[in-house]
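Repro:
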Amino acid sequence: MEELLARFLKRDRAALAKMISLVEDRAPESTAVLDRLYPKTGNALKIGVTGPPGVGKSTLVGCLAAELHKRGTTVGIIAVDPTSAFSGGAILGDRVRMGDIASSDGVFVRSMATRGSMGGLAIATQDAAELMDAYGFDWVFLETVGVGQLELDVADSTDITLVVLMPSSGDSVQAMKAGLMEIGDIFVVNKADRQGAELMMDDLSMMFELTVSDEADRPPVVKTVATKNEGVGYLLGSIQQIADALTANGTIAGRRKERIRKRIAAIVEEEMLRGFWERKDLGSRVEHVTDEVLEGHTTPFAAARRILEDVRG
């Protein structure tokens, strides 16, 4: 492990990949690794990219990374993909759509499987983002799997959230239903060369006028055509402006504090749950009462209550 840490600190990309695999697999040594590296975090700007499937999130993130790369900025990207039903791994579609930028120096792309997480981000995603931060990337993008109402936890994992939509698909209604409007710092109408883009821009602007009283607090709405690299530079400028404003008014600091608080609570819950199942051979006891339920001697609720009473006793 010491040799791996030394390689990581020398910015060895293979060591970074191995470290992410450790935290993704919840390996026993992953906690020690994160403990050692956590003091080096807190410098990267973390950008969440969310929105319904098919709006072009991966292509857009790839364009943003390419533009940042041209400007001499280093970029880490975590693309959360659906989980393979066969291997449990990520499908890797996002990496394919990001093209050549995925193999560029100064840009590191990692696909991660949801592994049953219902919030659009894998459980280990925040740890992977912290590793990329400790590695020294200036910007870290977290792109969600794209499952609408179930991916809102991206706002709890990043400093700034981009909500990507596209015209002529009912996305403005989707934004309202899914609560995406509440979490977005910037709204992006991608595929803006399609019919209905201007109408969607107007719809979003009208929604913000009705829901956000202070004009200065209304999130910007930006048009892009990621496949043609149109509007990407302007979007990047908008992200930087929002980042500067939210840093100045203390919002990003507040979000980071809340992120740490929730992470501590999640770690405590995870450890307590693991310890709970290790107590009194609960696994075999569940197997035993399962047979009792199948034989009609009890119900799942009564069986669970009995186990809990025994544990508490």
